[in-house]
Amino acid sequence: MWTHARWQGRLLPGHLPQGERLRAYATWCDAVEGNTTFYATPSRATVETWAAQTPPDFRFVVKLPKPVTHEHRLAGGEAELGAFLDAIEPLGPRVHALWVQLPGSFAPSDVGVLAAFLRRLPRGHSYAVEVRHRAFFEDERSERLLERVLAPVAAEWVPFDTTVMFASPPTSDAERDAWTKKPRVPRRSRALTGRPIVRYLGRDDERRTVEGWRPWVETAAEWLREGRSPTVFIHTPDNADAPLLARRFHDEVRARVPGLAPLPDPMPDDEPLTLF
Q1: Separation of alpha carbons 30 and 44, rounded Å
Q2: Residues forming beta bridges with residue 200, ordered by sequence position
Q3: What CATH number is associated with residue 90?
Q4: pLDDT tens-digit readout, 189-230
Q5: Which positions make up the signal peptide (predicted)?
Q6: Distance (Å, whole) CA 211 – CA 223
Q7: Whole domain around residue 249: which residue ranges?
Q8: Burial category of 110 from C-beta neighbours within 10 Å (exposed 0-12, middle 13-18, buried 19 and up)
Q9: Of 93, 128, 158, which residue is a domain's last?
Q10: pLDDT per residue over 14-64, tens digit each?
Q11: DSSP letters of 72-86?
């Protein structure tokens, strides 16, 4: 995500090579979604550069590979999983959670497979599961069943709040794309562990995005008062201003919880100006 084209030269220094952009991003935000690992497991050498560019308390929430979660549906893919776990090892404590994102077809009837899979995972990591089947959100029995499976391994349930996106029809190409691809599920705000993770999707309109995250500001503040350590990811359909919005969200939470540390000052763009 730190290589997002819309950020280069506007939010992140434009002259930085790709291998240095994470260092700049880490001055804007102190956590990142490792979404690219879903599509391809990086080399161990690449992950070593990620570790070198980030402070020890930086948080990676790293998605498990697609072959494990979507192709084998947790009932295989041991080789792919082993390669992934070996590749991310250089991140050490920066791995805040391994993110098990499941397809929308993964239903309550599949929860036994999830339970067996979670039991096989190494205990050295924290785990976070994202489900997209509506039954988990609308049927209390299915909800409690999933919570009972997550509890023995202290895994968190990751809500992806898209309610603002689906509150009214899309108005741009980016919103139309999100409308067709993102899950349409109710908002969920119950934390299961001391390390809750939230994914929030707003709109192109900044005002609507900010209005929509108000419940999460209050929830995150309450979690902090309870001694939890939440991680909140702010998205919009094109993510052009996501780092700015993430910092604004952080400031709103900090206004309610003054003990929350501020984010670092963003890296300046010190590229020299030229006339030609």
Answers
A1: 22
A2: 161, 234
A3: 3.20.20.410
A4: 999 999 999 999 999 999 999 999 999 999 999 999 999 999
A5: none
A6: 20
A7: 160-261
A8: middle
A9: 158
A10: 888 888 999 999 999 999 999 999 999 999 999 999 999 999 999 999 999
A11: STTSS-HHHHHHHHH
